[in-house]
Design a protein that fits this description.
mainly alpha; 2 domains; 1% strand; Cytochrome Bc1 Complex, Chain D, domain 2; single chain; 33% helix; two-stranded antiparallel sheet
């Protein structure tokens, strides 16, 4: 028998509260790397700003290695069949090629799993932005009843029974204690290490490669008032990383004219002015992360381009940057082809095959 599906707007907050109550824990302020831990060899890519790392969870080689193993460990789910990687596949840019992910009880969610890339620069997590740290974000999928559907005490017990994990936690945190707080910290460290910065665009910016005429035309259109993509997908700090920050964090991009109450960022703020405003995703590796939009309704990049060419549906909270709603942008075929060509320059195929991000148990 399948376990019941809970109403989406309330399940995340409720299950986080239940998980914390059952676990009876507060984050362990003593969870700092031991002196023997090796600082992670972080290098901020050229054109990126230096990210800020949480002082109570600095990156270490041992912490990232532990988080990588946990990311692929199916024992984080109730029936040991799903891991974080089950819905965030490396060969899909750490996104899910299915429109909606299916949990361990065969129940589908109603959001397309976001790509995990360049998370060290992200200020908000989830499509509705309800978490602002990777550590807190990692709590929810484990206990969500339509995702991994377990409890943190159950996860801790399973990991303690594995002869490998106590030594790994010892190396990463200075003792072999296994706790929710340490698990989520290790997961967050690994996820921060998922940096993609070697696309053709990056090499072009560094002067190592040249754009074709069509790619350059797409870049110029992207950053012009006629294309007007840059207002939402340009980087506030450098103009380079395309979605690592974004001038606008949440937007109603005109997918619907009738808006669902308490959808999007309104769930977090309680403000109706935020209704149907969803987190603007990165465009890095967008070639690999179909389907698109918060609900995966658009299957191809061509369809995405056609949506913006159409201009979007007018509504009360429509982003003011959607200036062509109701009239359309009327891009030519050549302009649409150029936009697509430019977006493909943001692809970093090496990110999809980097062995340091792969399952450590894979053959």
């Amino acid at each position: 028998m399948k376990r019941p599906r809970w109403t989406y707007p309330f399940r995340a907050a409720l299950w986080v509260a239940i998980g914390l109550w059952l676990h009876g824990c507060e984050p362990d302020s003593s969870d700092v790397p031991p002196p023997s831990a090796t600082p992670y060899p972080w290098q901020t890519p050229r054109g990126f700003v230096q990210p800020t790392f949480p002082p109570d969870n600095p990156l270490t080689v041992e912490g990232v290695m532990l988080g990588r193993r946990l990311f692929y460990d199916k024992r984080l789910s109730g029936d040991n069949t799903q891991s974080c990687a089950s819905c965030h596949l490396q060969d899909a840019g750490f996104s899910d090629p299915e429109r909606f992910s299916t949990g361990i009880d065969g129940v589908q969610g109603n959001r397309n799993a976001m790509a995990l890339v360049n998370l060290a620069w992200q200020d908000f997590l989830f499509w509705d932005g309800r978490e602002n740290s990777l550590e807190s974000q990692a709590i929810q999928p484990v206990i969500d009843p339509i995702e991994m559907h377990t409890t943190w005490p159950e996860v801790e017990a399973k990991l303690r029974a594995d002869p490998l994990y106590p030594a790994l936690f010892q190396k990463a945190f200075g003792s072999d204690q296994i706790s929710q707080d340490r698990i989520t910290k290790a997961l967050a460290q690994f996820e921060r290490s998922l940096v993609s910065a070697n696309s053709k665009f990056d090499r072009w910016f560094r002067g190592e490669e040249t754009f074709t005429e069509e790619e350059l035309k797409g870049y110029e259109l992207f950053n012009s008032e006629r294309g007007d993509c840059f207002h939402c997908h340009g980087d506030l700090n450098t103009g380079l990383t395309f979605g690592a920050f974004g001038n606008v964090q949440f937007s109603n991009n005109g997918l619907d004219s009738v808006l669902v109450p308490w959808s999007g960022y309104e769930r977090v703020t309680g403000n109706p002015a935020d209704r149907a405003k969803f987190k603007i995703p990165t465009l890095r590796n967008v070639e690999y992360t179909a389907p698109y939009m918060h609900d995966g309704r658009l299957a191809t990049l061509r369809q995405v381009i056609e949506h913006y060419n159409f201009g979007g549906h007018p509504s009360a909270t429509l982003d003011p940057n959607m200036k062509a709603a109701g009239t359309g942008r009327n891009w030519s075929v050549e302009e649409k082809d150029a936009l697509l060509a430019f977006m493909l320059t943001l692809s970093d195929p090496g990110f999809l095959t980097d062995s340091s991000f792969a399952d450590p148990e894979a053959p």
